[in-house]
Amino acid sequence: MSIWECIELLNEFVDESDPDLDEPQIEHLLQTAEAIRKDYPEEDWLHLTGLIHDLGKVLLHPSFGQLPQWAVVGDTFPVGCAFDECNVHHKYFEENPDHLDPKYNTKLGEYSEGCGLENVLMSWGHDDYMYLVAKGNKTSLPLAGLFIIRYHSFYPLHKHGAYQYLMNEEDKENLKWLHVFNKYDLYSKSKVRIDVEKVKPYYLSLIEKCNLKRTTYTLEAVIMATLPTQSLFFSSSSYSHQARKFHASLQVPSSLRTKGICFPKTTRTDSDRRSQEDSNRPKGVVEGWRICGSRCQFIWSYFQGLQCRIRVAEDSGRVLSNESYSPNLKYDLYSKSKVRIDVEKVKPYYLSVNEKLNLGGLSLRQDDTATSFTQPPRPTTASEDEHLVSKIHAILDAVADRAEMHAIIGAQRNDWNHLFTNSINAISLTASLMAGISSIPVGEAAPHMLAFKLSSVILFTAATGMMLITSKIQPSQLAEEQRNATRLWEQLGRSIETTLALRAPTQRDVDEAMEKVLALDKAYPLPLLPGMLEKFPEIVEPTRWWPKIQPKQSPQAGGNGWSHELEGEMRGILRVLKAKDEQQYTTLGKLLLNMNKTLAISGPLLAGLAAISSGLIGSPALGPMPAFLGVIGGVLATAVHTLEHGGQVGMVFELFRNCAGYYRRLQEEIASNLGETDVQKRENGELFEMKVALQLGRSLSDLKGLASYASPLCEDEDIKEFAGKLF
């Protein structure tokens, strides 16, 4: 059967997992291919890849086995290693035997980091099927094209970035093309229908060029496609590594290799069709039996009509035949002989084979097998670890959302500062100009012009009001608060991700993360009113955005990395931080605060004076003084406002306060560890020393030079250097 014939055959189906449910498959294939062709006209191999990437869905057709949709479409995932939480319907993977198997439930499982996806067993789907077809035809498609065909349903990788540790350099290069392809897959964007007859010659020429003239399917591929469904009915979430490895390793004599259509057409009774339809249900529930994926029990039932016996080598799981196979499949599914089998007579033989192969037994999910297939599987109780992981991920999502919100608000408040500064300056200077013009005598007439006089009064009044508002809220300081909050939220998110990468989270991790979230919310509120931070506090204190610090326990033998020398070093750092670094930024903060107060009062005061003076221009009793004060007051108000908000004095004050908080937090971390008398309950000393060095911008050898300041003989006045070198 040709490729184009398969495309037309596939047009009879709609993939239930596709967003384009109203679009027939040929429309989706052509929309994808034509969209790629428009944007990448020179990459003809990519055009063809877009056309054939979903062609493996012909397995849904009766001519190719009439497999249920859940066995053909949907997301794919690796088996043989831990199931990532990015896998769709991740909670159902709890019932997969690999989930509890220590050989396969670790991050790498049986693989090694960077081993390459070519060496990773994937769950079965139309992707792998079409990949085998392309390989079997010895296609000239480049490796990137084959990569797209094989992994375009591997959404945990190319959508969420999971499993990247299994990729090698070649996979990473091919993944770039898969990301390009993804922009055109899934959705048929164009409303213009494709003229099939018009584009058909072009794609036929590509099929010819890439050596994909006919769909050649080997029986190995067919067995891999059908065993999980017709024999064992594996669902996507219960399909395990051992089952997939078993299917991938099947060996079939050359006499049984077929080309062309995979399945011989057979006449099925209505009951057979109903049985096939019953198999189209999720989670592998068939006639009350729940198949455990890592066991291929009763696998030989598929080959019963072939009159062969099967043994499995325990070390590799490969299936070898010790008797010849029948040259066709006519005995499959149907029992031709009228001679009844004596069950009790043959039962011991098959039980002994079952025990020899160590395949275990079936796991019944319901007591009444006659009715259990109509009942949903009983929910399993998630383990405490999984609950903790779910909680920490919920916190991580909230942290990411907070970081984005603060970034957006920070940008908006920074725009406020620029717009207010420029607008107020323009208004003040315009009002000063009008006040000056209104005082110019015109002949023998009155020495002012009413229109200019009133305009200057209105503009000065508006400028005064706007200056009062900006002096109160300090837009530059608001922007700095949000910038720092964004940095701290992102830092918290990275800290949680590091915890998840290194080990399973504990309840303490969850509690600490929640406390940090609440502390950050309190330190940097999102609303402007009410809840805005005080811009002119009576007492300047370092900003506090962290909860009470507890030492991170990392018990080890041999002192946990702590020594008397390290303790002395930390005490010296603690003293220098308190006496010099924190004190410096607190003092500078007070200086900037007083300066900002003066400017915040002077600007509106000068603008108000100018407004009053402009209203008195032309008064005979006052002479030229009102005009003088109006013009000079407006110019001075503009200068003061520019210095305050153009120079972002409020932002600098907030920066100093945050720097003091940075060093205050480091002091508390050091004091918390030193205050723990049980050394084994402290954070690892060597690791902690390195973290302190990084936060201070010093080398480890530099830190040792601060140990001398721990001596009680050393006075604060004798400390000449600062602990931090970052700022």
Automatic annotation (TrEMBL):
Subcellular location(s) of the protein: Cytoplasm
Broad enzyme group: oxidoreductase
Pathway it works in: Polyol metabolism; myo-inositol degradation into D-glucuronate; D-glucuronate from myo-inositol: step 1/1
Family per record: Belongs to the myo-inositol oxygenase family.
Principal place of residence: cytoplasm
Region listing for Disordered, in residue ranges: 261-283
Claim: Oxidoreductase is one of the keywords in the record: yes
Biological-process GO terms, alphabetical: inositol catabolic process; L-ascorbic acid biosynthetic process
EC identifiers of the protein: 1.13.99.1
Required co-factors: Fe cation
Positions annotated to bind Fe cation: H28, H53, D54, H126, H152, D185
Pfam families: Chloroplast_duf, MIOX
GO CC terms: cytoplasm
Name of the protein described by the UniProt record: inositol oxygenase
Molecular-function GO terms, alphabetical: inositol oxygenase activity; iron ion binding
Cited InterPro entries: Chloroplast_duf (IPR027949), Inositol_oxygenase (IPR007828)
Keywords: Ascorbate biosynthesis, Cytoplasm, Iron, Metal-binding, Oxidoreductase
